[in-house]
Input
Amino acid sequence: MSGSDTLNTEKQPAVCLEIRDVVKQFPGVTAVDHISLEIKEGEIFTFLGPSGCGKSTLLRIVAGLENQDQGDVLIAGEVVNDLPPYKRDCSTVFQSHALFPHMSVADNIGFGLVERKIPKADIKKRVQAKVDLVNLGGMEDRFPHQLSGGQMQRVALARSLVLEPTVLLLDEPLAALDRKLRKEMQIELKRIQREVGTTFLNVTHDQKEALSLSDRIAVMKDGVLLQIGTPNEIYETPRTRFVASFMGATNIFAGSVIDASDDLLTFKADTGLQVIIPTPADIPADQITGFSVHPELIDLIQGDANPELTCTETDVMLPGTIKEVFYLGDFSEMSVIVDDTDLILTVYMTRGWNGPNMKMSEGEHIIAQWSGESMNLLVG
Amino acid sequence: MKKRKLAPKILWILSILTLIFLWAPMILVIVYSFSNNKYGSSWEGFTLKWYVKLATNDQVRDALMRSLIIAGVTVVVSTLIGTVTAYGLYKLNFKGKNFLRTSILLPIVFPSVVTGSALLVFFTRLIHLPLGYPSIIIAHIVFCSPLAVFIILGRMQRFDWAWEEAALDLGATPLRTFIRVTGPQLLPAIMASAMLIFPWSFDDFVITYFVAGVGSTTLPIYVFSQLRFGATPVINTIGTLFVTVTMLGMLAVYFVQKMGKSSSSA
Output
């Protein structure tokens, strides 16, 4: 790991895992459909998608636990297609932890070092270092059945990290933990990753976890890679309808651009709604198939206010009625039915808005408003 | 209120009767083994002379040794075959797997007389195997290894196979994975099948009688042949030893299980 940055004058980190056009078929389904991507050294990369999207299969292909039908996997620049799992320079943290029940915590962590024929004294030192890293001091002699879920998770993590793999693979590492513990482990994972600097390849179906943990995210569906980007890009500028709704931008309008100028587009949605959107720099107008608006970017204005005063050209205003209010504590989720249509908008109102002085309740007539910049264009 | 108490009472009496029914013959055998009566069938004062006779009887010692050797070899080979077969039946996918899995049951459900005579014909007419140790041991393996297969297969069904993947992933070759992870996980099942197979093999009369041939008398066959010439109290002493050894074995299993439970449920 230290040898690679000697001649690297550019600050670009090296590619440590590359997946080239990988395909995996199972009877009746294509689990992984021509996926290619590069993961850079030291980043936390996440495969995100609903269950059955092929993200775990792809992870298992990288680990060597599953063989791809087509395509190459390169770890640290070397094709590892034909290497069995025990010869690949990567290590997996399994969802079920898969700790060896007949071995103590220390023996579990030292398992891989024994296989590498490291001297005993050395194993002890390296195991101890990782025990300290994951905060398991004093638990070395316990057995897996004496540990809590979070502790088992830490042992599994230490057991893989002690081998200093080029890539650490995490298969839904937090799914088995309860919500509070999940949050705690998420912070722990991030701290540990920053400390050891190992590349993490994480698999999850939880958008929140992916957003808060990752440096970059790849969203998958039905074996297809839909979008790769930073958490910011994935959340704020999803490019397809699926990514948008999966990331929580539930207000999606399908339609097409009917008029385009240098700085403004006129977009007509299938519902008849016509809006003006600032022309994007990176998307050709004829590829646009819709737009999405995040629920937290929509404002609700109470019926008696006069909206025309603050309105600009690209602002969208739709009169409607509040159909339902779901009170969630820190914010309320409202569904608003737009007048004379069956269009339903989802709007989040934080307490600051819908709080002490502003009460909005079901049945109230309001105006939903959002700005031109809040509209994110979709191409698929 | 009285009616309610009747049912437990009846149950209690039935249990006692059942226990007496089960235990009385064994207790009689033990008691008469210390009796002076020369037919071993009534109490005529305490003696240890039948035990002295047993200890100096070469035939008994030979038969006992033979039975122990046969049971020992049978246990080792059967558990080995059982482990490998169960592993293959669980992990491999091939045509006719279910048929094979079910057909392995046959030696257990077949009447011993059928298995015994079939083996005898097979050994003498088809492969001309000399009757004696080889034929007895092969016969015992035939009806004992299915038991091992089923016990070990049962254990495998409750396995978290991610263990194996984790071991491979951490750098263990498939062989090392079996030695360090799968094997130790299977050990309780292997031991359990060994403890069941040993008495099966040691006790077996019917099948052994068919394939033993002349001059390779096992202990059960010896006991049977002695009874034909009229009971001698030496038989009682053999019975007593059997009961004692079996009880000790059961106690050992009980304590091993108890220790295993207390260490895994803490």
Notes: The interface with chain A takes residues 160, 162-163, 165-173, 176, 180-181, 184-185, 264-266 of chain B (CB under 8 Å). Chain B has one domain: 46-260.
